[in-house]
Amino acid sequence: VQLQASGGGLVQPGGSLRLSCTASGGPFRNYVMGWYREAPGKQRELVAAISTGGTMKDYGDSVKGRFTISRDNAKNTVYLQMNSLKPEDTAVYYCNRPPNWLLRRTFEYTSWGQGTLVTVSS
């Protein structure tokens, strides 16, 4: 399956962005999906994950209450709505699919698609 993330850009602190990740080449509705980010000098971390049907969601501690993950299985797309953005949210954001829900935080991916850069700055 191929994953394409988009929607990044430059935004001021306190602003909002919505990222999209569209999948092709596989049964998207069967995939757990996750958003991850990598900031300069930091390890890649889970931002948010969503189960196949969207009933379970998990968020990184630093984004809880500000970010919302959702999915539209008819459009093969997962979204990340980011509100109240902070400079420390600056990173390249990636989407990927762990093999199952339990591995959403720990799975060691062998490949990553092209992420989308989010820059939060005044």
Structural account:
- With 122 residues, the chain is mostly beta strands.
- The protein has no helices and 10 strands.
- The strands form 2 sheets. It has a 6-stranded mixed beta sheet, with no helix packed on it. It has a 4-stranded antiparallel beta sheet with strand order 1-3-8-7, with no helix packed on it.
- The chain starts with a strand and ends with a strand.
- The model has no long low-confidence stretch (mean pLDDT 95).
Measured distance between first and last alpha carbons: 37 Å
Q: List how many beta strands DSSP finds.
A: 10
Widest beta sheet: strand line-up: 2-10-9-4-5-6
The secondary structure category is mainly beta
Helix percent reads under 10%
The number of helical segments is 0
Contiguous uncertain segments of 5+ residues: none
Share of residues in strands = 35-45%
Q: Report mean pLDDT, rounded to a whole number.
A: 95
Largest sheet: 6 strands, mixed
Topology as a string of helices (H) and strands (E): EEEEEEEEEE
Q: Judging from the principal axes of the Cα atoms, what is the shape?
A: globular
- Which value, in Å, is the CA radius of gyration? 13 Å
Give the gist of this structure.
The chain is an all-beta fold. It has no helices and 10 strands.
